[in-house]
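Researcher: Structure for this, please.
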Amino acid sequence: MSSTIVDLVKIAAERGASDILWVPGTPPQMKIHGALFPIPKTGFDGLTNEEQQGQMRATVEQLLRISKSSLTLDRFIQDKLNRHGYGEIMWTIGEGAETLRLRTSVYHTMRQIAIVIRLLPQRIFPFEEIFAVPGYVGLLKPLLLRQNGLILITGPTGTGKTTTIATCVDHMLKNRKGEHIITLEDPIEFLFPRRGGYQGIISQREYGEKEGEGDFPNFAEAIVAGMRQSPNVFVVAEIRDLKTAEAALRAAETGHLVIATLHTRDAAETVLRYVNIFPEEIRSMVRTQFSATILGILCQKLIPRADGKGRVACFEMVRVTPAYANMITEGHIKQLASQAERTGELILFDAYMVKLVILGLVAERTGRAYANDPAQFESLLKASRP
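Model: Predicted structure, token format:
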């Protein structure tokens, strides 16, 4: 008898997997530290394509029931997959400290159903575990207590941005007394229950495209409306479009701290991406606005550990100084790294990577492969050795 999807999730969770991937033509696989492995004893081996699609349809139907969705399987396929090419289902197993939230993406590939499940453990990591190199978290922590401005946390998909933001939110709830944090998420991943030790309060809001599917249908409008909900901090899942970028800047200018994400690899690219969202004819003005509100940029990747036991986060961090802001205003974006590094307000991604290599957390060949600039990595590594 084939395993149920709950059985597969439990096996994957026990082995520390981050995702389950089930695509036509292969049995379910689990991703552990960025590599794929078969899930043992699932009973899905040897199925014909028709049998496999039947199992996948049954699985989606089961998840809709578990999530208490109002959609039937046929309606989910019609409204989500046929119309948009994909649909998402959030569901939960376990209780209390054992709770596991799961984000399921169901999509079409070659006109067949495929399923990817992201496992979302609810443990919130302390900064000391996220930042393996001691000392550098000191660039970020003070920014989380500022009353207004913009902080951008960036990196490719699947590099731990959500985990880092959860740690930031936890820190702010513990240290911003009597303040209100509003999160705008798609979907909500980490839950922040009311508990002892929190001095602030949080309103977690989830995006939903249609009425009744979530708490808000539009990120930009949710930021504008949120300014009437007595907020101190906005956490925006992603700057996706012009209107959201504009609303986030406006909120940061009008006395709110805004933390948001982008899919960029370093600080200079982050500035360019944000400014270039806007029409060319107003970018000069936007650079001025951006330079006046940006407090810091944190870019991250997950790198395989030298001991093979998982991955470690590698960061590029900049805390914006007046000189840095002035360079943004004048459009000298490519010179940002050298300026910030001279003032001690930035650690380059490749410099952080060198620290991980020296600490023995990342193998030298791995550091070279993942470096933003392999030549720069080699130079920094050589300079760090006696």
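Researcher: Any notable elements?
Model: The chain has two domains: 5-121, 127-384. Residues 202 and 209 are 23 Å apart (CA to CA).
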